[in-house]
Amino acid sequence: xxxxxxxxxxxxxxxxxxxxxxxxxxxxxxxxxxxxxxxxxxxxxxxxxxxxxxxxxxxxxxxxxxxxxxxxxxxxxxxxxxx
Amino acid sequence: xxxxxxxxxxxxxxxxxxxxxxxxxxxxxxxxxxxxxxxxxxxxxxxxxxxxxxxxxxxxxxxxxxxxxxxxxxxxxxxxxxxxxxxxxxxxxxxxxxxxxxxxxxxxxxxxxxxxxxxxxxxxxxxxxxxxxxxxxxxxxxxxxxxxxxxxxxxxxxxxxxxxxxxxxxxxxxxxxxxxxxxxxxxxxxxxxxxxxxxxxxxxxxxxxxxxxxxxxxxxxxxxxxxxxxxxxxxxxxxxxxxxxxxxxxxxxxxxxxxxxxxxxxxxxxxxxxxxxxxxxxxxxxxxxxxxxxxxxxxxxxxxxxxxxxxxxxxxxxxxxxxxxxxxxxxxxxxxxxxxxxxxxxxxxxxxxxxxxxxxxxxxxxxxxxxxxxxxxx
Lengths: 83, 378
Known about the structure:
A: 83 residues, alpha+beta, 5-stranded antiparallel sheet, 19% helix, B: 378 residues, alpha/beta, Rossmann fold, globular
């Protein structure tokens, strides 16, 4: 249940209120998703992040993220692997 | 790479048997799916501990979920993992795990009644149970249904707790009055300590969970090496990560100098995610938690702080408290989770208990030890 997926930050939006969490858009294996950056406020556009239960929880170095993504994509149909 | 690690493992594992426990459902699945278990030296035993949050949710907590789902005007929101988990046994007015002579009155329950249900069964009978991907989705459901009470069933470990804390803070900020949390959240390190004192289990080292450690860092495991003189290695999820984790543990055993090491360096920093830790501390306080197979362990549960009481589903819906279920004795999930037996030791395994008709959570959850054995260990 503690599974986490890797996503690349596409944009981070301004919080809706003074105490609200920043939200943003990530790309997870070609699928765009809105997540919360309340646990990782320092994330910026272009970075790779680990995502759990709709929250970014950790940044990943591009080389580590790409290595894991490559392994994950091995399970995908060939035409989706390039994304 | 894998061959090199396996050769090193073989060289390090001498005749003495070594038992290493992992406490992470994702490790359990990775070990069996990749076939690692079959490649290890014969005297190296890998035990799957209480690392699947669904599997360690007690029958009493599950019973409270069922009771809540039957209330009018309540929408239950939960992660999909929990839906099919069955709970069965006797609902009893005198909770068994309490010391002798101490009796607790359970509201509305006067005599023993048998139960056998799951949230899926409750839903088939008319309960409004919805699967969400994030606790924030439960807030959206609450906003869309102002006339209903929306309850999020909080299961999970430190990986999930910050997201749930975030949802509670957001509910407070946005002034939602129809969102509630029923927390069965648990913290892992104290359960690992309880297992080190468990007479039926021998643990020579721990493969520590990767994503729990992303949040809590390496510090909370120090007692394992400092007080119990056992190795503890925070490990990633690829097969070669797990093999490397095992190798680091064997090297520590050989050198006689146990410590906490991080193999999963790509994601785990020694300090963890401090923003997430602060969020947990801001919303929750430590309380007793009821673990399937381990019983009630003090300070391993996360309960809402006084400031957030109005979101507490337990209080709001006056649910029965304490250990109110005498578990079904046929299901031995409790012993499987603690590593006291393997699934093959249970008479129900593959016979009356299969993924299609599971008797207990270890067979329901894809991360459960029984499900992993069933699928990959034919």
